[in-house]
Amino acid sequence: MRNIISLFIRYSAFILFLVLECFSFYLIINYNKSQKEIWANSSNLLTGGVNSYVQGVEDFFALQNRNDSLLIENAKLLETIINYRINSKNNNFQEFEDSDSTANYQLIPSRLCSKTINLRNNFMTLCKGSQDSIEVGMGVITENGIAGIVSQVSKDFSTVLMILNSESRTSAKVKSKNYFGNLQWRSDNPLLMTLTDVPKHAEIVIGDTVVTSGFSISFPEDVYIGTIYDYSIQDGSNSYNIDVELATDFSKTDYVYVVSYKLAEQKEQLIDSDE
Amino acid sequence: MNSIWQRNIIRGLIILALQLLLLKRIDITFGDFNYIHFTIYSIIIVLLPYQMNRSGVVVIGFLLGFIVDIFYDSLGVHAAATTLIAYARYFVLNLISPTEGYNKGGLTASNYGLPWFLTYLSIIVLLHLITLYSIEAFSFVYLKEIILRSVFSFIASIFFITIGTLIFNPKY
After folding, report:
1. Does residue A256 have a pLDDT over 60?
2. How far is CA B164 from the centre of its chain?
């Protein structure tokens, strides 16, 4: 006991020092707002760096999931826009808001498994097939414009005949004037297509918007394609050759949306019976 | 003995008054440069008698810092720094003890010479200022500010104290 007391006396200065320092820090942290905040923030400083790094790694692994969910979200939004536009043309606002029954177009988001853009006849392969209710003849679009038409479908994959293909013919129109024509790919430039069969008397202005006509079963009406880049009339011809600059840069495209049209079969049958 | 106490108490009060009423208000700022603060009250701890009980010095240090804190509106900051130098004083004195020992009376320049006094003073004041501004910033993120503030305040404070020492040249 005596030893403890003597020890205490011997180190009294040190003990006193420690006690008073602790008390000072207690005062600092409790009675000074800024120090309290700094304390709260600084304790995050070291762990914050580590945490954000770990979060970065986690984010990287989550990217695929997040991409997919964004893709689905995008598809939903595009779908709504397309259907809304069509319904607004028919003055069907009420019906559109009432139910989904008027939603004739559905979009199926898909990743690209492969694509070519520098050949004369380009195709791309989607990583989805009949399992995801993709059928031959459906149109394929990107956020910026049209991409092609599904030409073959297997269980898990489907092939798309791109608009950058010499066999591709797409019905398109100049939006402001409603002149229709055929969109073909004649050049080697994957950003330039040619709109033919627009009659000579039409007034064409460079920079006008070109959209889909909605005549085909593949694409809805008014899907953006690009802008007019240049035009010319061949000697002896009765129609323009209009160069259209595509809005979609296919070299950068990784995701597309397949357009599923509910009334496609009906329309197709009608066209077939006509012929 | 009694007169030494009286001297210390009166000197302490005068220095405190000087610090809290005058030096606290001095604000030397050139644009972004506001690193100069006169902080001289640590001289009270420096000049306490050598024979004084170590615990007593620590308590005085704490009380001194506490009083300064009340005036500076920074409860605990000065108290912590001053308690630290009060405790460290003993070790500093041991470290730089003159060959003949501390038996000439007060720890002043007139007893032990100006060079010794300046060394002692510098160590204590620098320690005080670095601790003070570190605790004030409370994070080593502001290392540059802490160092700049400590260095410039150190120069200003030492300058001030040295002039005071040369003028009054106290024996105790």
Report:
1. yes
2. 13
CA B157 – CA B101 distance, rounded (Å): 28
Q: Summarize pLDDT for A53-75 with one digit per residue, the tens.
A: 888 888 888 888 888 888 888 88
Disruptive mutation site among A8, A9, A24 for chain B (greatest number of B CBs within 10 Å): A24
**Contact indicator for B85, B127 with CB cutoff of 8 Å:** yes
Per-domain boundaries in chain A: 2-53, 104-274
Closest chain B C-alpha to A40 CA, distance in angstroms: 11
Cα distance between residue A131 and residue B16, in whole Å:
86
Which among B58, B84, B138 has the least Cβ separation from residue A38?
Answer: B138
Q: Does B127 touch chain A (CB under 8 A)?
A: no
Number of domains in chain B: 1
Q: Taking residues B44-59, what's their average pLDDT?
A: 89
What integer pLDDT is reported at residue B61 of this predicted model?
92
Contacts of A26 in chain B (CB under 8 A): 76
Residue-range definition of the domain harbouring residue B103:
2-168
Q: Which fold has domain A104-274?
A: Thrombin, subunit H (2.40.10)
Question: B139 vs A41: CB contact, 8 Å cut-off?
Answer: yes
Q: Is A16 on the interface with B (CB under 8 A)?
A: yes
Helix and strand element counts for chain B (H, E): 7, 2
pTM > 0.80: yes or no: no
CATH number at residue B57: 1.10.1760
- Structure tokens given for A54: 């770990």
pLDDT higher than 80, residue B30: no
Backbone φ and ψ of A252, nearest 5°: -105, -5
> Using alpha carbons only, how large is chain A's radius of gyration in Å?
32
Which residues in chain A have their CB less than 8 angstroms from residue B62's CB? 20, 23-24
What is the per-residue pLDDT for A275?
A: 64
Pair of tokens at residue A99: 């139910």
- Looking at residue A228, what is its pLDDT? 92
Contact between A28 and B59 using a beta-carbon 8 Å cutoff? no
